[in-house]
């Protein structure tokens, strides 16, 4: 099988709720990823996909973030939320 | 009626006298009285020769007889016989005969008719007598070709000239004082009058004296009356002329002598004049010829002047000659011809022989000379103009020559210095190539100047052909340019050769340098290698090796003579360079550009090599002894290691088999494993003994051992791995017991998971083999080549890596024997999940994969598989449980306060929560409210946002 990746950004209009579930973090030895989407939520409307990795939150790289830091970063966001994501899909 | 006129109209003298006559008659009756008296006396002075007289002049000539007689007396000729009748007709006939005779003597008698004479007309009679007097008494008197009247006057003047108080200007008042008559008498007969006693203021005495003396001694009757002359203002001219003519005839004897003298004078005068003319001719001719003689060479001188200015001066001179000097000469020549012709005419007229000019001065000579002059003159101007044009052209050419020469000389300036420069003697090869190019450029430049030089030479040649005055200096300059040109050519050739020769030499040297470098570098390298080898501290491990080294050393020693030959050949190249440099004096400032190696260095190294050879001999002997000892140590270690290694291997296989086969309950497996652990620990002393042997080997610096495949490190790692494996396997069983108990997974479920996993693990042999062979290959290299040191450095090998490593070394570990890796690839995992009843979409599987394979290796370990399966099958929503627990602590609020946390939880945990919980932002928030819900989800790596 092969794997393709593509990076994209979304700007979600504030305020919360943003309509997605965040999963992972450095402390879980897992990448930060979108694990669930609320139907007709802001994230779903913006085209964010389940399984997509979160590479940056408000232009801050998430590589060194543990889960709570990432969560607090999003919660602290009062205006629009800017995310850089990487869509992941596997083909066999 | 026939009329005779007194004067012929054709003769001026008579005409004029007639006019005077007519006027006189009209104006002065006194003159008639004087004429009657004088003419009567004159006629009687002749008639008396025939024995007759007249008393009354108008009465006595009326019959014409006495008139004819008078004419016969005075002419000496016979007239026609007179008519002897007394009749009027006879008288008229006789008078006419007289008048005809007069006319026959060339006198035309105008207005005088015979009838008036016959009639006794006084006026006519006196006129006729005056005509006779003029014709026969006065007409002959001509002095020096003057008229009769003037001749008589001139005679009077000449005769009275010596007398200062006499001035005869006419035949009237000049005679009034009487001195004129006295002077005439005294001149011819000085004895007759005492002239000195005469006084000008006494005319009466003077007149009477003269009249008396003339009558008495000279037979000249008194024809005038002194009172009449003194008494009239102007005496009658004809009367005085008649009387004076008598004096003239009276002195005729003396007159003849004088005439002769006059004639002589005349002849002499002619002669003198002719001589003068001849003399003039000779002189003129001589002068003219001399002038021509002098002028012709000047005109024939066609030697050109050297300068334009001089030539123009010449042209100016010629113009002066044509305009000023020649015209008078033309006139002179003309005059000379005229004079010559006149002279010849005069000579002929005076019956003289023709004039013969002296030799070379003939008219023809002059004509010839003149012709020669004009001949010389002809073409002279043309020549001058041509010369000026030629000089103009020459000047132009010379100027052109000078300009071209100057330009060329300026160009030439410094060229010789440049060409003779020995710069190539100190030039490098690249310098020489640059100099050659520069020189080639100069040669082109030089070739381009060939035309110029030829032009200069051509101009100089033309100047020579046109006979330029300064040709010598032009030629000298041209010659200098040509010589210099030849010299430049020669120098250019010479320099070109020198440059090429130097280039060749430098190229030769360069080649030699290169050859030197090419040979010296490997030789140097060989020597350095040799030195290195000779000083090498034998990292040898076997006797064979040291023997090999010894053999190699012997072989090396055998190559030394050949090497020395090479060394000498290399030095020979260097010497060849030095010889060329010394012989040809080429630049050697530069060092060999291809190498830094020099002969001194080679020799030094060579010496060093030679020095090192015996040292090496010694070292090899010592090493040989040491290797024998090392071999003993190896055998000792190998015999032990070959027992321990297989023992560890066997134990590893047995442990692996226990964990995979899962015989009995987890508790049975655990008991079995603990027994194994004990037997392994009991084996430790054998490992320690091997460490002792290994230490000896290390101290002997032995790094290899052909008697065994086991190194100490292998044994150690194997031993540690064995210990780790037994411990981990025991722990795994313990964890499975814990997992089973905690998540409520039954033994059966766990066995099912394991079996499923093992199934796919077993199935994917191809994949495992690929992975295995790749890793195996990598670690073969690793194991065979790495030294102890490198083992220490890499230290922490991954489990799989070590597993592969063990396999390569002969450890036939259990799961490997069954082609297991303990991993599934992504595809297998998907199929495994489906086989276990999970029906999911692509996105869901991607989510699961991101959980079980966070490192995206494409494989899933059994532990991750178990974790995932237990999470999926057990009570999964633990975050909600935590959230519910916090809600209890918070008294059913949606937020919690710090004091609540501190009150309910141990301090560490409380502070942990307080530090991490975000402020609660819900509508029911109070100050210090904390968000326990997002904290709870975050604990599980998930949060709804």
TrEMBL record, chain A:
Instruction: Give the matching Gene3D superfamilies.
Output: 2.30.42.10
Compartments it resides in: Cytoplasm
The biological processes this protein is annotated with in GO are: actin cytoskeleton organization; heart development; muscle structure development
Keyword line = Cytoplasm, LIM domain, Metal-binding, Zinc
Domain PDZ: where?
Answer: 14-89
Q: Which SMART domains match?
A: PDZ
GO terms for molecular function, please? actin binding; muscle alpha-actinin binding
Q: Name one GO cellular component term.
A: adherens junction
Record's keyword annotation contains Cell membrane: no
Q: What is its main location?
A: cytoplasm
- Keyword Transcription set for record: no
List the InterPro entries hit by this protein, alphabetically: PDZ (IPR001478), PDZ-LIM_domain (IPR050604), PDZ_sf (IPR036034)
Q: Which Pfam families match?
A: PDZ (PF00595)
Q: What is this protein called?
A: PDZ domain-containing protein
Provenance organism: Electrophorus voltai
TrEMBL record, chain B:
Q: Which residues form a coiled coil?
A: 267-294, 432-466
The answer to whether the entry has keyword NADP is no
Work out whether the entry's keyword set contains Coiled coil. Answer: yes
One short Pfam name that applies is Spectrin
The EF-hand domain covers which part of the protein? 840-875
Where does the secretion signal sit in this chain? none
Show where the Calponin-homology (CH) domain sits: 33-137, 146-252
Q: Which UniProt keywords apply?
A: Actin-binding, Calcium, Coiled coil, Metal-binding, Repeat
Q: Which SMART domains match?
A: CH (SM00033), efhand_Ca_insen (SM01184), SPEC (SM00150)
One GO MF term on file is: calcium ion binding
Cross-referenced CDD domains = CH_ACTN_rpt1, CH_ACTN_rpt2, SPEC
The Swiss-Prot or TrEMBL record describes its family as follows: Belongs to the alpha-actinin family.
Its protein name is Actinin, alpha 1
What species is this protein from? Electrophorus voltai
